[in-house]
Design a protein that fits this description.
The complex is a heterodimer. Chain A is mainly α. Chain A is built from 15 helices and no strands. The longest helix of chain B is centred in the last third of the chain and has 18 residues. The chains are: A mainly alpha, B alpha/beta.
C-alpha cells in the first residue's frame, strides 16, 4: 500500500539543529533559575520579605523602575520618531551618540553622572533637585541607560510603520503633529509597550551606576540589586538568594503583564 | 479641473521637465507610464507632499502650488491604500470630517452614504488588518472622498487586485467618480485600465507628459 505523501515528509536537519540550539540556551536559563530556587530553603523567602529593609528595597525598586520606564518612553517616542522619519545632516552622528549609554560600561555611567553633578552647572541643578546619593539619583541613573534602549525600540517601531498613512492624513487636512498623534502613535502602541518593558527591566536590574551615583544606604537608596550585593558582601548567601528570587518573580510578573497588554493592543 | 503648467522637479537622476497638462472638471483622467517613470512623484507634487522647483498647479480654479496638502482640495489614494493601521473603517472615513469640525449627524450621514456607494457598510467597524485588497482600496477611496474634494488622485488603485476584483473595482471607481462629481486623475501602467476608464488619456515618458486622447 502506498504511504500517503505527507507521512513521507522528513523533518529537515536544519529544524533539528535550530531546536537543539534553542533547547540548549533555554536549559541554561531555566537551569539557573531552578538551581537558585532550589538553593534557598523554603522559609528564607518569607524571612527575607519580613525584613523591613528588604521590603523598602522592593518598593523603591518597583517605584524607581516604573518612573524611569515612563520617563524613558517620554523621550524615546519623540527621538525614535525623529530618527525614523527625519532626514537631516549629522543623523549618523546623532544615531551613534544615542548609543553611548549602551556601549559605556555601566559603572562608568555612574561615575560620569557623579562628576557631572560636581560641575558648576550640576551644582546649580542640585540646589533645586538633589540627585547625588538620593532617590532622584537612582531614577536618573536608571533613566540614562534605559532610555537608550527604549529609543532603539521606538526607532525600530517607527521604521516599520509606513509613512504613507501620515501623508494621507496631511492631504485630508491634518497637521504633521495631528497625523503623528492620531495615525502613527496609536499604530505604535505595541512598540511603546515593548519599549516601556525593556526600559523597566533594564532599570529594575541596574546596579553599578546606582551604587556609584546614589550610594547604598539602607532605607534610603537601597534597591533590590543593591540588597543582593550588600547581603553577599556580608556573606549572607541565603538572603542574597531569597532577594534574587523576589526580583525574578517581580520582573516576571511585570513583564508578563506588559506583554499581555501588548497582545491586546 | 486639474491643470499643471511648466512643472519642474529634480531628485538625483530623476527629473520632470516642464510638465503641462489638464484634466477638465468632472472628467476621468488616466496617466499612463512605465513603472518608475515618476507617476507617483507627479501625484505627490499635485497633492503637495512634494514641492516642485517651478510651475503652476491649479485645482478647481485655485492656484495651489504654495498651499499645504490639506488645503488643496484633493483626495489621495496611494498605491497600497495606506489605511490608518489602528483606526476602524468608520473612523478613517470620518477623519477628514472631524478635522473640519462637521456636526456629528452630518459626519454619520456622509460616512453612511459613502459606505453604501462603495459597498463597505459591513466593514465599518473593522480595522484594516484582515481586509482584502479590494476592500482596503474601497475604504481608502471612501476616506479620500469624504470631505468632497474637487480632485481625486489615484495611484495604481487596481494593480494589487486579482482580475475579477480589478474589473469590478474599475467600474465602481468610474461610477463613484460620476456620482460624486469629482475630477479624477488615475495613474496606471496598464493599457487595459486606461482604455476602460479614461475620458482623458495622458502618457508619461522621459519626464514629459503628452495627451494621447
Amino acid at each position: 500500500m502506498a504511504v500517503p505523501r505527507e507521512a513521507k515528509r522528513r523533518v529537515s536537519g536544519l529544524w533539528i539543529a535550530l531546536a537543539l540550539v534553542t533547547a540548549a540556551y533555554l536549559t541554561l536559563v531555566l537551569g539557573m533559575l531552578i538551581a537558585t530556587a532550589a538553593h534557598s530553603p523554603p522559609g528564607s523567602l518569607l524571612h527575607a520579605l519580613s525584613s523591613r529593609e528588604i521590603r523598602f528595597a522592593i518598593q523603591l525598586s518597583l517605584l524607581t523602575s516604573t518612573l524611569s520606564a515612563l520617563l524613558s518612553l517620554a523621550v524615546a517616542v519623540p527621538i525614535g520618531y525623529l530618527l525614523a522619519r527625519g532626514r537631516f545632516r549629522g543623523k549618523p552622528l546623532l544615531d551613534a551618540a544615542l548609543d553611548i549609554p549602551i556601549v559605556l560600561p555601566p559603572m562608568v555611567v555612574g561615575l560620569c553622572l557623579l562628576i557631572l553633578f560636581q560641575t558648576p552647572l550640576g551644582r546649580l541643578v542640585e540646589r533645586a533637585v538633589p540627585f547625588t546619593y538620593t532617590v532622584y539619583g537612582i531614577v536618573l541613573a536608571q533613566f540614562v541607560i534605559a532610555a537608550a534602549f527604549a529609543i532603539r525600540t521606538m526607532r525600530a517601531t517607527f521604521d516599520h510603520l509606513s509613512a504613507r498613512p501620515e501623508d494621507v492624513a496631511l492631504t485630508l487636512g491634518a497637521s504633521r503633529a495631528r497625523a503623528l498623534w492620531s495615525v502613527t502613535l496609536p499604530a505604535a502602541s505595541r512598540g511603546m509597550l515593548a519599549a516601556a518593558g525593556v526600559a523597566w527591566a533594564r532599570s529594575f536590574g541596574e546596579f553599578g551606576p546606582i551604587l556609584v551615583f546614589a550610594g547604598a544606604t539602607r532605607l534610603r537608596t537601597e534597591v533590590l540589586p543593591t540588597t543582593v550585593w550588600l547581603e553577599l558582601s556580608v556573606g549572607n548567601l541565603e538572603a542574597a538568594v531569597a532577594v534574587s528570587l523576589v526580583m525574578v518573580i517581580a520582573a516576571m510578573l511585570v513583564l508578563t503583564t506588559i506583554r499581555a497588554a501588548g497582545e491586546r493592543a | 479641473m486639474i491643470r499643471l503648467a511648466g512643472v519642474r522637479y529634480r531628485a538625483g537622476q530623476f527629473r520632470l521637465d516642464e510638465v503641462s497638462f489638464s484634466v477638465p472638471t468632472g472628467s476621468y483622467g488616466v496617466l499612463m507610464g512605465r513603472t518608475g517613470c515618476g507617476k507617483t512623484t507627479l501625484l505627490e507634487i499635485i497633492c503637495g507632499l512634494r514641492e516642485a522647483e517651478a510651475g503652476s498647479v491649479v485645482i478647481g480654479d485655485r492656484e495651489v502650488a504654495s498651499e499645504p496638502p490639506g488645503r488643496r482640495g484633493v483626495g489621495y489614494v496611494p498605491q497600497d491604500g495606506a489605511l490608518f493601521p489602528a483606526m476602524r473603517v468608520r473612523e478613517q472615513i470620518a477623519f477628514a470630517l472631524r478635522l473640519r469640525r462637521w456636526p456629528r449627524a452630518d459626519i454619520e450621514a456622509r460616512v453612511a452614504e459613502l459606505a453604501e456607494q462603495l459597498g463597505i457598510v459591513h466593514l465599518l467597524d473593522r480595522r484594516p488588518a484582515g481586509l482584502s485588497g479590494g476592500e482596503g482600496q474601497r475604504v481608502a477611496l471612501a476616506r479620500a472622498l469624504s470631505a468632497r474634494p474637487a480632485v481625486l488622485l489615484l495611484d495604481e488603485p487596481l494593480s494589487a487586485l486579482d482580475d475579477e476584483t480589478r474589473e469590478q473595482t474599475g467600474e465602481l471607481l468610474k461610477e463613484v467618480q460620476r456620482r460624486q462629481g469629482v475630477t479624477a486623475l488615475h495613474v496606471t501602467h496598464s493599457l487595459r485600465e486606461a482604455e476602460q476608464l479614461a475620458d482623458v488619456l495622458l502618457r508619461m515618458e522621459a519626464g514629459q507628459v503628452t495627451v494621447a486622447r
